[in-house]
Amino acid sequence: MYGGVKAAGRSVRTRLRDRVAASDPGLLRLTAGLRTVGAIALALAVLAAFGADVTHLVAGAMAAMVATFAIREKELKGQAVTLALGLPVALASVSVSALLTSRVVIGDAFFVVLIFCAVFVRRFGDRGTALGLIGFQVYFVSLFVGAKVSVLPGLLGAIAVAFVCSAVVRFAVVPETPAGVLQRLRQAFRARLAQLIATQSELLDAGPDGIDKTLEHLRDGTARLHETALMIQSRLEEGTPDASTARLVQRRIADAEIAAERLGLLLLTARSAERADTLTLHLPGAPAPSVGRSPAPGEATEILRRDLGALRTLVLRPPAEARGTALSHLRNRLLGYRDEENLPEAIPAVQDVFRGIGETARAVMGLRIALDGPQDESDDTPATTRSREELDAEDAAIDGGEETAPKEEPTGLRRPTTRAAVQVSVGSSLAILGGELLSAERWYWAVLACWIVFLNTASTGEILVKGYRRVLGTMLGVVAGIVLAGLVGGHTWIAFGLVLLFIFAMFYTAPLSYTLMSFFVTAMLGLLYTLLHTYSLSVLLLRVEETALGAACGIVAAALVLPIRTDRRTNELLGTVLERLTDVTEGAVDQLSGGPAADLLDTARELDQALGDLRAATQPLTHPITPLRARRNTAQYVVALLETCAYHARSLAATAELLPAHPSIAADPRLRGAVRRTVRNIEAIAARVADEDAETEVETGPSIASLLAPDAAGVPRYGRITGRVLRHLERLDEAVMGLARPLGVPVAPPKR
């Protein structure tokens, strides 16, 4: 009985852990919030023990926050160096601010120069970005608390204490190593993979009325899984001991992602009257396929439901609980479907689903071996043994890859950091002038708003959307600040407790919603004003006015000074995506046709990164408030088509990577001919995107599907793997042709 209760408790903890891991991959948001709050709390405790007054407590708390969130380097050694360099930068910044507090013109001019330098040094990577951010934010802190020369020694001491407390929390209390982050991201990938499989199983019972909602969940689950895969890829270099291990994990993550996405498509096909369109998984609001009551009558549906549950169990079961006959039986049964063993009696589309379950089970087994080490082989069946041998052969073929040549960076004003530095300097100058007219004491809020709308933005449209979200969050935060200020009154430590709570919420919600983050920032500042005895309704309303002014100055500067229009930005990124798509497709098909091996996984990763950049850049076009509905629909459609292309290109790359290790997969030179037209069409679209006057057109011709038809005797012309490659090429060709219409590329009539 006790053992059953203990096992139930462990099961509840495991489910809770998996849910948290899936909602916050790598626990990055939770760690950022806890580390920042911990640093502030420790700084407040130390300063209070030395008898610091409220002004020094507020300055120390804000400096501890800045010292913690500004540093984004992954390696602990690099974090320590940046934190050590940040302290003299912070001390110099607050000292200059105190010295210039009575010299308005010189102080404002220095602030603009500081802003320019803080943005300009971003070109030096994470360290330059962190030092620039520390210099600017600490200068702002000194303005906020009204730093003067008479109180400068105390402020310098408070800031030094804040940096020391930040170091203690970062390296001792809430440490974060690259290997630890990667381990938590792996757990998040498993949890999200299990969630996606659970959503796929809902397709079995979804009727005509519920299919749209199920498809929406399927799209979200597929996107979340891909997001986690990209996060893992970005951490592999620092979190793994060597390049071969990194490539092995990257390969297994890619295999599992592709297999899971393919399984969802096979289930959709089984539920619909014809082969499901890949676009259904990528385009919000895409029409759902017509579905019947059940993908298969009778026993086959129950077996599908059972096997999807078994697959989910294989994904989630921790390594310590992964031994035993029961789990081995599940694994062996699912892997048997790969060799056509015990396929249930059903229509071909449903049997394809069972084969897809077998392929996904094989990818899950490879993932477990890569992440958890060797597995128990005592109960292996011949089918499982063959899968292990294939995985071992693939592992042996993986090497460290080749070094990539450094990319040529733009120079002068074409460099993004230089352009942004000029823009934000001009915008800040306007914000200072306008802010001084609104308030001679709190003009710096306008400068802060202008500064923030330029962070992590690259076009006028992105700045416009971010400014709107900043103002909206600030307005809501003012309302909360008014209520909280009345409730807290003169209770200093209750106010500091709420400040810590809001700071945690600010960092936890920042990646999810910029509006929410702005809300918590403003509510927190209302409490800080209360602590400094400068709170009033007029002060909070002034903050809204200054924020709106600063956002407007940022938008004006972005639109008039070295502007980058959203159309230009998206066209540049679209051209990069098409270029990467060509590289992946040509490289994969060339290798599948017998060409030399290439580093296809890294090329596919570059495609995913380019597509992610494009997706972020189109947010101003797809934002709900945009009045240009047709343009929004076009942008969503183009991005969805490109995601479809990327999925099929990744699948081709993954299949090509198997070629050297699998004798059952033979090179087929005929594939080169099948892809030529598709590659020419991608290049034609890219040329039209780069130059609207380019006289290019896309070609039509016989469908690649025609190559899949059997010969006159009914014998298939290609093997199963080559047939799958041709299916991917067919869908890729259709998606590329679909890009021609919204991008204005004419279609040439078919050649006779």
Structure description:
It contains 26 helices and no strands. Helix 1 packs across helix 8 and helix 11 packs across helix 12. The N terminus is likely disordered. Belongs to the YccS/YhfK family.
What is this structure, in a nutshell?
With 752 residues, this protein is mainly alpha-helical.
N-to-C order of helices and strands? HHHHHHHHHHHHHHHHHHHHHHHHHH
If you compute it from the alpha carbons, what radius of gyration comes out, rounded to the nearest whole angstrom?
29 Å
Oligomer: single chain
Query: What is the 3D form?
Result: globular
Biggest β-sheet strands, sense, barrel:
none
Number of helices: 26
Structural class: mainly alpha
Alpha-carbon distance between the two ends: 78 Å
What are the segments in which pLDDT stays under 50 over at least 5 consecutive residues?
1-10, 400-406
Which percent band covers the strand fraction? under 5%
Mean pLDDT across the residues is 82
Number of DSSP-assigned strands: 0
Helix fraction? Answer: over 70%
Write the layout of secondary structure elements.
Elements: H1 2-23, H2 28-49, H3 54-69, H4 76-99, H5 104-120, H6 125-145, H7 152-173, H8 178-202, H9 211-239, H10 243-271, H11 299-316, H12 325-336, H13 348-372, H14 382-397, H15 416-438, H16 444-454, H17 460-488, H18 492-509, H19 514-531, H20 537-560, H21 566-592, H22 600-617, H23 619-622, H24 629-658, H25 670-690, H26 720-740
